[in-house]
Amino acid sequence: MSVKDAIAARHSVRAFAKEPLTTEQIHELLEAGRNAPSSLNSQPWRFKVVTDPADLAWFGTSQASRKQAWLGSVPAIIVCCADLEHYVKDSQSAAFFYRDNKIIDGEPMDGIDAYVAREAAKEEAAKFGACAMNVALAVSFMMLRATEMGLGTCWIGMFDEANIKAKLALPAGWRVVNLLAVGRPDEPVVYPRKRKSLEEILLK
Ligand SMILES: Cc1cc2nc3c(=O)[nH]c(=O)nc-3n(C[C@H](O)[C@H](O)[C@H](O)COP(=O)(O)O)c2cc1C
C-alpha cells in the first residue's frame, strides 16, 4: 500500500472484531511512532498499551472516556503521553549533538543555549503544547502504519486524564495527549469523509 493509499483509506474506526492484537502488531505500531520526527529530536512521546479486558472495559465508562461505551470492547488502547519531565533535557542533548556534529549548522544553532533556557522556563501548559505536537506526529505515523497493516484506529480526545493516570499508575511527569483505539475493523457502514475543499483552506 502506498502512503497515498493509506492516507485515503484511513478513517476513524469505532467497531472492531473481537480479536486481540498480536505482540508483533503492537510492536510494529510502536516502531512507526518511534520513528516520527520531533522538535530537536526530543522524542517526548511515551506509550502505555492496554490489552487486559478488565482494563479495557473500564475505558468505556464515564470514569475514563466520558462514557464512550464502544471503547470498552476494543482489542487494544494505546495511551499516548507526553513526558514533560524529560522534554527539555532531551531537547538540549539532541541539540548539542546536532550542533557538535554539524548536522544542523549556522544560525539555527547559534542561539541554542538561549532557546533551551527559554523552553525550560516555560510554564507547564506551554511545554505540554510543544510536547503534544510531537506526540500527535508519532500517533499520525502509527495510524497510517495501522491502515497499511489492515488495522483500524480512532483517536480519542475525550477522556478523564486524572483518572487514567491514577488507574494505570502513569509517572507524574507524563501528560495524556490522547487514547488510540486499535483493532481489526468490523464495520457495518463506512462513512463518507467530509472534508473542507482546498479553496476553503488555501489562502491565495
Ligand atoms: C484531536 C481529536 C480528538 C478526537 N476525539 C474523539 C473522541 O473522543 N471520540 C471519537 O469517537 N472520535 C474522536 N476523534 C475522531 C474524529 O471524530 C475524526 O477524526 C473526524 O470526525 C474525522 O473523521 P475520520 O477520522 O474518519 O477521517 C478525534 C480526533 C481528533 C484528531
Show the helix and strand layout:
Layout: H1 3-9, H2 23-34, E1 45-50, H3 53-59, H4 62-65, E2 76-83, H5 84-100, H6 107-110, H7 112-121, H8 124-148, E3 152-156, H9 161-168, E4 174-183, H10 198-201
Antiparallel strand pairs: 1-2, 2-4, 3-4
Bound molecules: flavin mononucleotide (FMN).
Order of helical and strand elements: HHEHHEHHHHEHEH
CATH superfamily: NADH Oxidase
Query: Termini separation (Å)?
Result: 33 Å
Overall pLDDT, averaged?
Answer: 92
Q: State the total count of DSSP E strands.
A: 4
| Total domain units | 1
User: β content, as a range?
Assistant: 5-15%
Count, helices: 10
Using the alpha-carbon principal axes, give the shape. Answer: globular
**Spatial arrangement of strands, main beta sheet:** 1-2-4-3
How much helicity do the residues have? 40-55%
Global structural class = alpha+beta
Architecture, CATH level 2?
3-Layer(aba) Sandwich
The value of Rg in angstroms is 19 Å
Query: Any ligands, ions or cofactors bound here, and which?
Result: flavin mononucleotide
